[in-house]
Amino acid sequence: MIRGLIEHVYEYLISKQVTHIPQHIAIIQDGNRRYAKKKGLATASGHRAGADRTEEVLEWAQELGIRHITLYTFSTENFSRSDEEVQNLFTLFKEKLSRISIDERVHKYGIRIQMIGDRDMLPEDLRGAVEQAEAATAHYDNFYLNMALAYGGRNEMLRATSKILNDIKNNKIKKEDITPDLFEENLYGKNVTLPPVDLIIRTGNECRTSNFLPWLANGHESAVYFCAPYWPMFRKLDMLRAIRVYSERQDMKKKRNCRT
C-alpha cells in the first residue's frame, strides 16, 4: 500500500515534467516468457499476463491523449518458436480481438483497430478475427490501436518494393511516380492511418529495436526508451518516464531551433 502511494506521487511529479505528449508510441512488448519463468508459471500464463497488461497500457494511453499506439504483437521471427507456443499465442490473440468488437471502451472512446504485417502468414480463423475487429471500428478516428502481427521490418520493405516493381512491370505506374508517399502506401495500404513514430518503448531490459517500423521510426529519428521491467510488470510510472524522455528531446530541439 505504501509503495503504491509512493508510485502514485512519483507519477504525479513526472507528469508535471512532461511538456510534450507524443502522437504515436510504438511498443516492443518483451519479457513475457522470462516473467513466466521467474514466477514459475507456464509460458502461456506469461503471455496472458502480458495481454492483460496491454489492456491497462491502452487505458493509460487514452488518459494521456496518445492517439496512436502500435504494438509489436508477433514478429515473423516468432514463427520459429514451438508449435504449441505459437498456437497458444494465436488463440490468445483471437480471444482478445473477438472481445474488442464488443468492448464498451472501444466504442466509447472511438478507437480504431488496424493490423500491419503479412496477413497471408496468419491462420484463417485469426485473420477473420482481425478483419472483424477492423470492420467493427473502421468508422472511428479518435484513437488508433495498431497491431503488428506476422510483422518484420525487412519483410515489410521487401514486400512493398516487390509490389511497386510489379506495378511498373504491368504499366500501372511509372518509375517517375515513385515517391515517399507511394512507398508508404504500399507498406501499409491505402486505408491504414499510421503517422511517423515519435517514441519507441522496449521492455525486458533489451536495448535494441529489432527492426520495428524502420520507415516510420528510424526514418523519422524517433526517441527510444529501454526499460528493465518485463512487459507484464510494466507500470504507468515506466510509461511516464518514457514520455518524459520524448518531451525532453522535444525541448532540446526547440532550443536548438531558437539558436539558429
TrEMBL record:
Textual note on the cofactor: Binds 2 magnesium ions per subunit.
- One Pfam family here: Prenyltransf
Keyword Lipoprotein among UniProt keywords: no
According to its UniProt record, the EC number is 2.5.1.89
Which residues are recorded as binding Mg(2+)?
30, 221
Domain of life where this protein originates: Archaea
Database matches in InterPro entries:
UPP_synth-like, UPP_synth-like_CS
The catalytic activity, as recorded, is: geranylgeranyl diphosphate + 7 isopentenyl diphosphate = tri-trans,hepta-cis-undecaprenyl diphosphate + 7 diphosphate
Annotated GO biological process: polyprenol biosynthetic process
* Cofactor(s) annotated in UniProt: Mg(2+)
Q: Which UniProt keywords apply?
A: Magnesium, Metal-binding, Transferase
One term of GO molecular function: ditrans,polycis-polyprenyl diphosphate synthase [(2E,6E)-farnesyl diphosphate specific] activity
Please list the residues that bind substrate: 31-34, 47, 75-77, 79, 81, 202, 208-210
Tell me the active site: 30, 78
Report the protein's function: Catalyzes the sequential condensation of isopentenyl diphosphate (IPP) with geranylgeranyl diphosphate (GGPP) to yield (2Z,6Z,10Z,14Z,18Z,22Z,26Z,30E,34E,38E)-undecaprenyl diphosphate (tritrans,heptacis-UPP). It is probably the precursor of glycosyl carrier lipids.
**Self-association and partners:** Homodimer.
Q: Which NCBIfam families match?
A: uppS
Q: Which HAMAP family does the record match to this protein?
A: ISPT
**To which protein family does this belong?**
Belongs to the UPP synthase family.
Q: What is this protein called?
A: Tritrans,polycis-undecaprenyl-diphosphate synthase (geranylgeranyl-diphosphate specific)
